[in-house]
Design brief:
- The complex is a heterodimer of chains A (395) and B (527).
- With 395 residues, chain A is α+β, with helices and mostly antiparallel strands.
- Chain A folds into 3 domains: 132 residues, Gyrase A, domain 2; 80 residues, Alpha-Beta Plaits (2-Layer Sandwich), CATH 3.30.70; 108 residues, Elongation Factor Tu (Ef-tu), domain 3, CATH 2.40.30.110.
- With 527 residues, chain B is α/β, with parallel strands linked by helices.
- Chain B has 3 domains: 221 residues, FAD/NAD(P)-binding domain (3-Layer(bba) Sandwich), CATH 3.50.50.60; 121 residues, no CATH class; 118 residues.
- In chain B, the strands form 5 sheets. In chain B, strands 1, 2, 11, 12, 13, 14 and 20 form a 7-stranded mixed sheet that branches. A 7-stranded mixed sheet of chain B has the order 7-6-16-17-18-15-19, sandwiched between helices.
- Classes of the chains: A alpha+beta (395), B alpha/beta (527).
- The interface between A and B is medium-sized, with 15 and 14 residues.
């Protein structure tokens, strides 16, 4: 049997369709309700409570912790204040992305790094000669994402943290009804939201406290399907879907650099040395060959493609995660890796890898659409990410 | 006999390779006959009802390397080949714990993590490297070895392709391959892992069928050989043939017959008949002579060239090389009929772990000590064992509620101190059963019948010289263009019209069928 997370005894009875999926060796609910709409709208309109415990978590401590992380990550960890959180990838020597995650600076010499895949060996292998310990905290720390416009009010009503002054990508140590937690103002939805980190044995009381206190604010347990739509709107990449981790790619062409994933902003080439720096410097000088952009599929074109068959456009009600060819002038110039209908934006959107000369904002391209077993092309426009970026996310 | 018994090809030995050669030749319109000494075909790949109601894959017991082109070309699925997955390997440990690796990546990771978090991740990296190397090397299984010292265009081209294949490897893989070629399995695995039962169990792939220990240089390469297996496009998959390994042979025999080949059992070949420097047929023990335009031997090189062909027909340097060919038997097989399943102390009860392999290989030291016994002429008091319970995978192998257990054990030297006899055979069987009983105490009482096959029995009953299961050890110096000896690695022999198609030729080892197929294709080139 796959493991449940520390919240399983609460989440299992809620999962009406028992439609679990697998996330890092844990059971993870696709959606709790039989229809996932309400869970998605909770993210954008109220608050969704999402169990993100399967994330890999590493506690990195020691007087060289900052030096070590600066050696591994592309971000400049020296610029990460205590109680700040940084997002970024880490690369192999050839500058290809192995994984991406958030780094919480819990203290001067103490960090928590999240990862989507196991990275203990990679981290340990790069810690040679440094005074640093790396502890796999995955099973002992549970995590919940509380995401949505009312999330702040919920936490204010339940905790002693100064949430009005907790800025985007900052963290606070707090208590939620006496349960010690770390609250980070982070998330995978592009909305106002928080992630709450707690000792696994306190997981169930924390869940109960949030559900209880959140009730007046419309708190709704949400599964991965809702999260997956929100993250596409937010333009956030997903490992194994939007990119293949470099250490798992069987062939070179499956690997991506941070520049090719729209993460150029995380690459601090001015840093002294970090794994992959030379390769990334070379790539930066020459300019990356691929870009990672948003596609907005043109409604009229889509309608036309479907009307050939006497159908109205059939829109993806949940995120698809397959590779779909993207064309320009009849030639394939890239591929989309995730896409969905955005109920908030009322647009059909997709995340796509595009050859650099087709990745400029506003470029007209075509995305393959299969209608009645036939491959068609719908017009689309290249846009910058994120698609959805509400004021409240940072305010 | 008269003109009407003259064949195009007379094949000695109805093992899987002999049958495959016959099938391919028949497919090309040649009149082929397979002569098998025993009452059933299959050679080492046979299913035998040794004890009433209980069927055993008497010797060879798992399938992985059977070449996909053989399966396709001979339409073996239509002829009844069914391969069932063998999903897991459990290594019980003396301290009551175990290590289990299964088909599910998450579960295997979690289990490895329990032993070593670093190994859990190294395992994926190692698997990826092996995947690449196996992918790069596996085409070699399907080509005729070129002669590296020949200037013939065909050899030069073959060598060029071979060389380019290596030079095209990314550096990381190239150097890993160099290490595999030169290191011991234990040393190579030590570079990756720290969990003893993991290293020991993986190292076993490096020593099966050789008279070497896991710390002997050169054994690392054989690890790779076992990564080249492929079932339904999945690399490294191991399977169990429904109906036992004999069912593989039966499927091939059925294909061969349908294609027009003739198969004769209880037809023991005594000698290859040579006339005017050419092989022209064989003489059976019964005195019957069977003539053919070519003679193909599927039995091992020593048996063929030192027994079946009179020495005056072969060059002395070739005979010397064949005498030097290493074919030391090192393994035994114990087949048990069981009244109930073994109950593992480390994981009691009937569970999915009994559908896979049980490996008695708790540590590298254990493995090396087992070899130490053999070095000085004794069987291992605590042998390495690879155990499967076929009746858990295919219920037809035993009466309802009863089970069969197949135990491959190493080391059991052919050259045993004092020689093999009934007493030694039973003592060896006792060592095997006693060792397993340390991990499954109910085993002894569950045994209804015990069938012990020593290397001596393998030679006497199955015709494997010195009881070597691979017709010659899979050591680097006996592989590819050196198998069985240069320059006769292209399935031809110094005796005109005599060809080789057995496991003693490239690539050899296991039920690959590659030797049989490649031999047939070479014979047809000369036709």
């Amino acid at each position: 049997m796959l493991r449940g997370t520390p919240f399983h005894e609460r989440t299992a009875p809620l999962c009406e369709g028992q439609n679990w999926r697998r996330w890092a060796g844990y059971l993870s609910a696709s959606s709790y309700e039989l229809v996932n709409d309400r869970e998605y709208f909770a993210i954008r309109g109220a608050s969704a409570l999402i169990d993100v415990s399967p994330l890999y978590k590493y506690l990195i401590r020691g007087t060289d912790a900052e030096r070590f992380l600066n050696r591994v990550l592309t971000r400049d960890v020296a610029k990460c204040d205590v109680h700040q959180v940084m997002y970024g990838p880490w690369c192999d020597e050839t500058g290809k992305v192995i994984d991406d995650g958030t780094l919480q600076r819990l203290g001067e010499d103490s960090f928590r790094l999240t990862a989507a895949e196991p990275n203990l060996r990679w981290l340990a292998d790069n810690a040679g000669g440094l005074r640093v310990t790396i502890e796999d905290d995955t099973d002992s720390t549970a995590a919940l994402a509380l995401q949505g416009p009312t999330s702040r009010e919920i936490l204010k009503s339940l905790s002693d943290a100064d949430l009005d002054n907790l800025k985007y990508f900052r963290l606070a140590f707090a208590r939620i009804r006496d349960i010690p937690v770390t609250i980070t103002r982070t998330g995978y939805t592009g909305d106002l939201g928080y992630e709450i980190w707690v000792e696994a044995r306190q997981a169930v009381p924390l869940w109960d406290a949030l559900i209880d206190g959140g009730e007046p604010y419309g708190i709704t347990p949400a599964g991965i399907l809702a999260l997956d739509m929100a993250r596409v709107e937010a333009g956030l990449i997903l490992i194994g879907v939007d990119y293949v981790p470099a250490n798992r790619a069987l062939i070179e062409s499956r690997k991506s650099s941070p520049f090719e994933l729209g993460l150029g902003w995380t690459v601090k080439l001015e840093k002294d040395h970090f794994v992959g720096r030379q390769a990334l410097l070379d790539e930066w000088r020459g300019g990356p060959t691929w870009g990672f952009k948003g596609l907005e599929i043109d409604w009229n074109s889509l309608q036309k493609v479907y009307s050939e068959f006497g159908l109205p456009p059939e829109l993806p009600q949940m995120t698809w995660r397959t590779s779909v060819p993207v064309y320009s002038g009849g030639k394939q110039v890239g591929y989309a890796t995730s896409g969905c209908w955005s109920p908030t934006l009322k647009k059909y959107i997709a995340l796509a890898h595009l050859q650099s000369n087709s990745a400029e904002r506003g470029t007209r391209v075509e995305m393959e659409v299969t209608v009645e077993h036939q491959r068609k092309k719908a017009a689309a426009r290249v846009v910058e990410l994120p698609f959805f970026d509400p004021e409240r996310k940072r305010s | 006999m008269g003109q009407n018994t003259r064949y195009d090809a007379v094949i000695i030995g109805g093992g899987h390779n002999g049958l495959i050669t016959a099938a391919y030749l028949a497919r090309a319109g040649k009149r082929a006959v397979v002569l098998e000494r025993r009452h059933l075909v299959g050679g080492s790949a046979v299913t035998e009802e040794i004890f009433p109601g209980f069927k055993f894959s008497a010797l060879s017991y798992v399938v992985s390397l059977l070449r996909p082109d053989v399966i396709r070309d001979l339409q073996l699925a239509r002829h009844g080949l069914e391969l069932l997955p063998l999903e897991s390997t459990i290594t019980p440990l003396p301290n009551g714990d175990y290590l289990m690796r299964g088909a599910d990546h998450d579960e295997t990771r979690r289990e490895l993590y329990r032993h070593s978090p670093k190994d859990a991740e190294a395992y994926d990296d190692f698997g990826k490297l092996m995947y690449h190397l196996a992918f790069a090397m596996k085409h070699i299984l399907d080509v005729v070895p070129p002669n590296p010292t020949s200037m013939r265009p065909r050899d030069l081209m073959g060598l060029l392709r071979f060389g380019r294949h290596f030079l095209d490897l990314p550096p990381e893989q190239f150097y890993a391959l160099c290490k595999l070629m030169t290191m011991s399995a234990a040393d190579f695995l030590d570079e990756w892992f720290e969990t003893e039962p993991l290293k020991a169990t993986m190292s076993a792939s490096g020593i099966i069928g050789t008279f070497l220990g896991v710390r002997s240089p050169g054994t690392a390469y054989v690890l790779l050989h076992h990564y080249m297996g492929e079932i339904d496009g999945v690399f490294r998959a191991w399977g169990f043939a429904k109906g036992g390994t004999g069912a593989v042979s039966e499927a091939i025999a059925s294909a061969a017959r349908e294609l027009g080949a003739e198969i004769r059992t209880e037809a023991s070949v005594e000698q290859v008949i040579v006339k005017n420097g050419k092989a022209v047929g064989v003489a059976l023990e019964s005195g019957e002579e069977i003539h053919g335009r070519v003679v193909v031997t599927g039995v091992d090189p020593k048996l063929t060239f030192l027994k079946l062909v009179e020495p005056q027909h072969l060059p002395s340097d070739f005979l010397d090389a064949i005498r030097r060919f290493k074919i030391r038997g090192s393994s035994g097989k114990v087949n048990l009929a069981l009244g109930e399943l073994p109950n593992l102390t480390c994981l009691p009860g009937k569970g999915p772990h009994l559908r896979g392999a049980i490996s008695i290989s708790p540590s590298l030291d254990y493995m090396e000590r087992a070899y130490d016994d053999a070095k000085y002429g004794n069987f291992s008091r605590h042998p390495y064992m690879d155990i499967i319970i076929p009746s858990m995978i295919d219920p037809g192998m035993a009466p309802p509620g009863k089970h069969v257990m197949s135990i491959f054990c190493q080391w059991a030297p052919f050259e045993l101190n004092g020689g093999w006899n009934d007493e030694q055979r039973e003592a060896f069987g006792d060592a095997v059963v006693n060792t397993i009983s340390e991990f499954a105490p109910n085993l002894k009482n569950a045994i209804i019948h015990r069938h012990v096959v020593t290397p001596w029995d393998m030679q006497e009953t199955y015709g494997l010289t010195q009881g070597n299961i691979f017709h010659g050890e899979l050591s680097l110096h006996q592989l590819f263009f050196m198998r069985p000896t240069h320059p006769w690695a292209n399935y031809r022999t110094p005796l005109k019209n005599l060809y080789q198609c057995g496991s003693g030729t490239h690539p050899g080892g296991g039920i690959t069928g590659a030797s049989g197929r490649l031999a047939a294709l070479e014979i047809l080139k000369d036709w």
